[in-house]
Every structure is written in C-alpha cells, then in structure tokens.
Amino acid sequence: MKRWTTLLLGATLLFPAISFKGPSPKAPAAWQPLLDKNLSKWRTFESYRHQLGYKGQTPTDAQGKPIPPIGYDKNEAQVFTVVMQEGKPVLRISGEIYGCVFTKQDFKNYHLKLKVKWGTKKWIPRLDEPRDSGVLYNSQGECGVDYWHSWMLAQEFQVSEHEKGNAMGDFWCIANSTADINAAYNSTKDTLKYNPTAAPLRMGRGGPGFCQAAANYESPNGQWSELELISVNGQSIHLVNGHMVLAVNNSGFVVNGQRQPLTHGKIQLQSEAAEVFYKDIMIKPLDAMPAEYTRYFK
Question: pLDDT by residue (tens digit) across 18-45?
Fold first, then answer.
C-alpha cells in the first residue's frame, strides 16, 4: 500500500485537482478614453460664420451664388484645439464658426461620459442668447444636412446654459431624425417637457423637434458639469451630474415618409457660437440597458 500511496501522491502533484465551478463571471468592460492631445480619434467639419437673420438657407455671395462650406479637416480660425491641464487633454471649441468635431469610429450600445464647462466668448448670432453646444449621437451620413448646414443626421443631448427654458440634457431632433419621448406641454402649450408618467409623443418629422429635460442640474458657471449618455438599441438616457433628466425611445429617422431605425453612429460635439470646453471623454461598451433605467421604457 505504501507504493500505491506514493504513486497517488505523485499523480496529485503532477495533475492538481480541477475545480468545476462553471464559467467565470464576465469582467466589466473598461472605460476607453476618446480624447488625446492630437485629437487622433476625431475629425472636424466647419460650415459658416452664421449671421443675424439666418433662416435655414445656404448662404450666398454678392452675386447670389451659394457659398460652399469651409468643409472637413480644415479647422479654420483654430476653432478646435486641445490644451493640457494638470496632465490631461482639454478640448476647447471656440464657437466662432458653426460645425463639429466628430469621432472617426461608429459606436453602438455604449455608456459615454464627459465633463463640460463654458468659456467666456460668444459670437453672432448668439450674442444675446444662452451659450449653446451639444453632444450629437447616432450620427450618420454627411455633415451639413441640418437647418444650420453644420451637422450630421443625429439625436442631440443638448449642452446649454439654463436660460430661456434651455437646460443641460434637453433633446433635439437633428435633420430628419425622430424618436418617442414621454412628455407633456407646459401651461402655455408651447414647449414640451420630459415627464416619465406622461404618454409618449412622436418627435421629429411631423411632430415637435424639441423637448426640455425634466429639471436643471447644471453646475454653477465656471465649474465642470459631468454628462452621461447611455445608448442601447435605440433607447437612450441623458444624465447630468448623476441625475437622470430625459429618456429617448425608438430612435429613428424618416426617409420618404418611412421610419427607419437609428441605433448607432458617430459622436459629434457642436461648435455653435459659444466658447465651450470638454474633458474626460470616456466610453465603454454595454450589452444591455442597465437595469436601473429599464423602467423608463415600459
């Protein structure tokens, strides 16, 4: 028996016990930075220096001929620049020329977070209007198809000062996008506001294109606000400083009267006549809408 015991002991040392515990739990997806000092993951587009009185027409020259936009990857007037602050890249968008910086990559099913704060400069036509920018998501096609001839077809997570009814996290349809949002009109029946208990309304072509966030949670001027966008299979959640302010359902776009799904695309950051700064732009993939937000889509 001693010989067999020795053989068994040797086998145990050569072939350690195997544990059958089932598949290992999936590790959480890691955050990926989107911003570096060279803007290596982004491209730019500039349209025009818009003037007062603009009503959606393509600008024309003295002879009445359409003026072409400045275009892609020109960065005239250094509208888009990156500076290093405390060892981190910070994107400055001057706002002097309408346009956008947009990701080279197309994204679907993700959690995006970034920080934003206002600069001091304003430009025509927003000299007497709240400062404005925006995070445009599910962005597809060419830039310049919207009212301002500056952006791609997209849904907008508005970045705006809390003035004249605007707030961080408001929603806009860009170009021919559409969506369903639970919302109700205010007392004067001229503006929709997100309300999770209200009936869903069709936004976009054939309906209203703007919806206010449920409440304002913007940080005081001069301080950073953290924005988060959760986008999964045509459903999205807008969060401002940790507060859920709006839910978007059935993201789509309309072509020849037919509604098509709009569930993935590039991310655009707008240049819209106001100086704005962005930093800590991070993204991670998601398999599904996080459980704490699924109730907003029932």
Answer: 333 445 556 678 999 999 999 999 999 9
How far is Cα 205 from Cα 288, in angstroms, rounded to an integer?
28
Q: Which two tokens stand for residue 145?
A: 């198809």
Phi, psi torsion values for 108, nearest 5 degrees: -140, 135
Instruction: Please give the torsion angle defined by the CA atoms of residues 203, 208, 210 and 213, in that order, rounded to the nearest 10 degrees.
Output: -70
Distinct helix (H) and strand (E) counts, the chain: 1, 20
Q: What is the pLDDT of residues 231-276, one digit of tens each?
A: 999 999 999 999 999 999 999 999 999 999 999 999 999 999 999 9
What CA–CA distance (Å, rounded) separates 77 from 162?
28
Question: What is the percent of the chain with per-residue pLDDT over 90, rounded to a whole number?
Answer: 84
Provide the pairing of β-strand 274-285 with 32-33.
Answer: antiparallel
**Cα dist from 217 to 11, 101, 270, 279, whole Å:** 65, 25, 21, 18
In the chain, the amino acid numbered 145 is V
Beta strands in the chain (DSSP E): 32-33, 42-46, 71-72, 80-85, 88-93, 99-103, 110-122, 132-140, 153-160, 171-174, 177-185, 192-194, 200-204, 210-211, 225-232, 235-240, 243-255, 258-261, 266-271, 274-285
